[in-house]
Amino acid sequence: MRSSEFMAAMPDAVIRYLENSFHLRRGRLWSVGVQLYDDDPRFHYEVARVPIRLGDRLEIGFHFESKNADDNHRLLSIFAARMIEIKAELGDEVEAELWDKGWTKVYETVPLETYSPDYLQVVARQLARMITVLHPVYLTNRR
């Protein structure tokens, strides 16, 4: 399975693991990544290969990429205040941090494996778990 096929298949794989109450749609798709969002593409879930210089890993995360850095920081502070609960649900590898261009994110990285249908299901399940935990917090705190 090529990277582009893996990423193109990710949205449908993730949605199969979610309850019907989640209405996510595919956002940007590129050969090494894909985004899913609910109501605003600036705030999206993402699976993307980490640059090779940082290791052979995939990032699975919730990105806050508004052009208004205050919106991104506000959401980051809300999630950061809940990191004990989030880590209890998703694991200690999950982090909340500032990122590039005033953006912020809640994310984890996982070892990159050969792109395959089995690995697709592993990553899709992990992203679905992340969405299940993080999305209710987002919905109650979005503007």
What does this structure look like?
The protein is an alpha+beta fold. It has a single domain (3-141), classed as Yope Regulator, Chain: A (2-Layer Sandwich), CATH 3.30.1460. Helices cover 42% and strands 27% of the residues. It contains four helices and six strands, in the order H-E-E-E-E-H-H-E-E-H. It has helices at residues 3-17, 69-80, 83-90, 117-141, and strands spanning 25-30, 33-37, 43-49, 57-64, 95-98, 104-111. Helix 1 (3-17) packs across helix 4 (117-141).
Question: How many individual β-strands?
Answer: 6
Measured between the Cα atoms of the first and last residue, the distance is 39 Å
Q: Characterize the main sheet.
A: 6 strands, antiparallel
The strand order across the widest sheet is 1-2-3-4-6-5
> Shape from CA axes?
globular
Q: How would you describe this structure in keywords?
A:
Yope Regulator, Chain: A, globular, alpha+beta, 27% strand, 143 residues, single chain
Q: Which SSEs are present, and which pair or pack?
A:
Elements: H1 3-17, E1 25-30, E2 33-37, E3 43-49, E4 57-64, H2 69-80, H3 83-90, E5 95-98, E6 104-111, H4 117-141
Antiparallel strand pairs: 1-2, 2-3, 3-4, 4-6, 5-6
Helix pairs in contact: 1-4
